[in-house]
Every structure is written in C-alpha cells, then in structure tokens.
C-alpha cells in the first residue's frame, strides 16, 4: 500500500501523483488481465474438449465470457482498490488541484498570471499557459494546466470509484436476473445462479462500504464547515 505525504512542495506533490498514477494503472492492468484469463478458462477452454459431433452454443459462450469477465473485474477492483487506497488517491488529487480552460475574450479585463511550476495557486486565480488561459478550480492547484484531468476526475470525489462499481454491479445483477428468468437450459441456469450468488455478495460489500464511507465523509465535511464558520 503506497503512502501519502502531506507536503507543501508543488514538485513533490506532482511526483507523488505520478507515482500513484503508475500504481493505479498497474492495478487496473492486473484486474484486466486476471478477469480476461478467468473468463477465458471458464467460457472458451471447455469448448476445445467438445467433440466435433456435438453442438456448441457460441452465443452462450460469448455471453458467459462477458459475465465472468465483468463480475471478476468488479470483485478484483474491490480487492485491489480498498477504501484506504481510494482515500489516499483522493487526498493526492485534492493537493494536486485542477484547472479549467476559459475563453480569453471573457476575462480580458481580469488579472492573469504566468503559470510557474514552483508556486501553489489558490482557487479562482487565472493563469496563462501555452497561450491559453486557465482558471484554478481546486483549493490548492499545483497541476500543469494543460495536463489531462483523468486522475482528478476519478478521485476528486472520494466515493466516485465506489459509486461506479455499485452501478456496474447493479446493472450486472439485473441483467443476470433477466437472463435467469428467460433461461430454459439447465446448464445455463446453474451457471447464472452461481455467478449471481457471487455478485450478490460483492454488491452487498460495495453497498455496505458506500453507506459507511458516505456517512464518514459527510460527518468530516460538516465538522470542517463548522470549524471554518
């Protein structure tokens, strides 16, 4: 588990975020490869042992591959992206900040600074970078204005990743229930029931974490607002 250092050096904050990006990308690659391998061995490998005189339902094999890969991805993401890790990425994103590109003609009468990497920019300030004008959106902003904001988008809100997993898992459960109702073959019914059972357990864990962390973050935000007031 990586650690987070609350420092005031813009250069160190950017280096820390780059390291966390690499670690997060590695975890996502691990999820993708492991889920694809699991689905491959479950859905496609057994087809090789079917005799040429027997019928193979290719549509069901493809559907089973998608169900197993998505279900395994959600379970692995919950394991590799625990609550403490997502909170760490959220703190790093909050320290990094973000910028919003604005039209120079709309802010020509407003003071604009030349962006420098050694300075921590406050919220609302306008800076020039690569002939464009950007507005600081975070409380503290040390990110390069022209950088892509994917990291900040996912982790600016501490519960965003968890919400995405809950929506994805809920959609999978509804689809599997529909397929289970429409299924007429015993082997498809058994496979769907087993996958659905694992998804029920994962959905329960995700929903429990969402409720607990939602209350914790709301209490933390209300306490911070009271201190400020």
Automatic annotation (TrEMBL):
Keyword Transferase annotated: no
GO cellular component: a single term: endoplasmic reticulum membrane
Cell compartment(s), UniProt:
Endoplasmic reticulum membrane
Which keywords appear in this protein's UniProt record, sorted alphabetically? Answer: Endoplasmic reticulum, Glycoprotein, Membrane, Transmembrane, Transmembrane helix
Which Pfam families does the record cross-reference, listed alphabetically?
A: Tmp39
Q: What InterPro entries does this protein map onto?
A: Uncharacterised_TMEM39
Tell me where the transmembrane regions lie: 31-49, 64-81, 159-178, 190-207
Could you tell me the membrane topology recorded for this protein?
Answer: Multi-pass membrane protein
What does this protein do, in the record's words? May protect the cells against DNA damage caused by exposure to the cold-warming stress and facilitates tissue damage repair during the recovery phase.
Q: Which PANTHER family does the protein's record reference? A: FI21814P1, TRANSMEMBRANE PROTEIN 39B
* Family membership noted in the UniProt record: Belongs to the TMEM39 family.
Protein name as it appears in the record: Transmembrane protein 39B
Naturally occurring in which organism (per UniProt): Lates calcarifer (Barramundi)
Q: Which gene encodes it?
A: TMEM39B
